[in-house]
């Protein structure tokens, strides 16, 4: 077995000795500056866009088809089922453009397109 190292003597702190108490009363404590919250990342922005749009429309988003950063925050395109039909490929879908600010709060939304779920994009 290895021999244990001898314990090092502790240094007395100025407070323990009563030396720093006077100085603490004279020097005002500075509070750290408030930092602006960091802008949300893409995953957080995507979830925020879908969640907030669902609250406003009362319908659950089907998917987020695009997300891009802007100067002021984020812009997302969210796909929503507006009218469910049987068969599922005939359900009416809508695409909404959602604008989020720098903190991830919804600023605006607008429906940009309606289509059936089975419809595929055609080249223009």
How would you describe the overall organization of this protein?
The protein has 124 residues and is α+β, with helices and mostly antiparallel strands. 21% of the residues lie in helices and 33% in strands. It is built from 3 helices and 4 strands; from the N terminus they run H-H-H-E-E-E-E. It has a 4-stranded antiparallel sheet. A hairpin with a 3-residue loop joins strand 1 and strand 2. The longest helix has 16 residues, at 42-57. It is elongated, with a radius of gyration of 29 Å. The N and C termini lie far apart (81 Å). The mean pLDDT is 83.
Low-confidence stretches: none
Number of strands: 4
Order of neighbouring strands in the sheet with most strands: 1-2-3-4
Approximate helicity band: 10-25%
Mean pLDDT: 83
Please describe the biggest sheet, giving its number of strands, its sense, and whether it closes into a barrel.
4 strands, antiparallel
Q: Could you tell me the radius of gyration in angstroms?
A: 29 Å
């Amino acid at each position: 077995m290895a021999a244990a190292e001898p314990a090092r003597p502790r240094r007395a702190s100025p407070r323990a000795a009563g030396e720093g108490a006077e100085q603490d009363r004279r020097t005002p404590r500075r509070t750290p500056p408030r930092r602006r919250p960091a802008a949300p990342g893409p995953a957080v922005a995507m979830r925020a866009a879908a969640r907030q749009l669902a609250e406003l429309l009362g319908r659950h988003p089907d998917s987020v088809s695009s997300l891009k950063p802007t100067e002021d925050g984020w812009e997302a395109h969210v796909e929503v089922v507006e009218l469910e039909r049987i068969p599922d490929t005939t359900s009416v879908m809508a695409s909404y453009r959602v604008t989020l600010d720098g903190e991830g709060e919804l600023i605006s939304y607008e429906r940009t397109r309606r289509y059936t779920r089975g419809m595929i994009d055609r080249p223009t």
